[in-house]
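A protein record pairs a chain with a discrete description of its three-dimensional fold. The following entry can be read in just this way:
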Amino acid sequence: MTSRLFAICFTTPRPPDLARFWSGVLGWGSVDGPDDDVAILPPDAAGFRIRFLPGREPRTGRNRAHFDLTSTCPEDQRQTVARALELGGKHLDVGQLPEDGHVVLADPDGNEFCVIEAGNRFLAGTGTIGALACDGTREAGCFWSRALRWPLVWDQDQETAIQSPDGGTKITWGGPPVAPKTGTNRLYLELALPAGAAGEAEVDRLVSLGATRTGAGRGDGGRVLTPRCFRPQGRRGRFPRRVPGRRR
């Protein structure tokens, strides 16, 4: 059995507060876990959850992964932006150009995200979270494609994207240049492994693909592997890294 994408995780000093923000923006319901571990659940049971885990690591620079939210029309984009601002988000100036149609925002913890303009063909049919846009090379995209057994749906000019065979959110990697990693990743992927010996075999498979064991994870028998998911620091006028659909 293959591991599956279980959650995208944020570490935050205020898990309940950040969960309320994202629950309000996305319209997803929330569930409380132990030790201030809060999650919000997608309307489709086949999708991934978003977990908010307690952590007080200092923020160092921009995140290396962020969400691209989709819009069905210009008014829908305006409503999403307005809802985020009402819930405590803020506009973020990262050097975007006046002609750029996407809106760059930050949640109350400073985590960047974008509300993409309507009509983006690359994100068509993906759902509210069109993409998790990440920093990383083509090799990172190929690793995750093999790890999750999700096909590459974009592989051009060192930019890659994968998507579940069932559809939904795409995960993209912008290719070089990749900024040097500093600090702890505040946003990362969590995989659900098969139980027992099958889980150990799956960990071995991930290691054979290029992952590295880094220690114990949360919960009983938890294991943490790298690589995790990265997002670009961004260059002036190029944040977020252009999703492939913007070139078409």
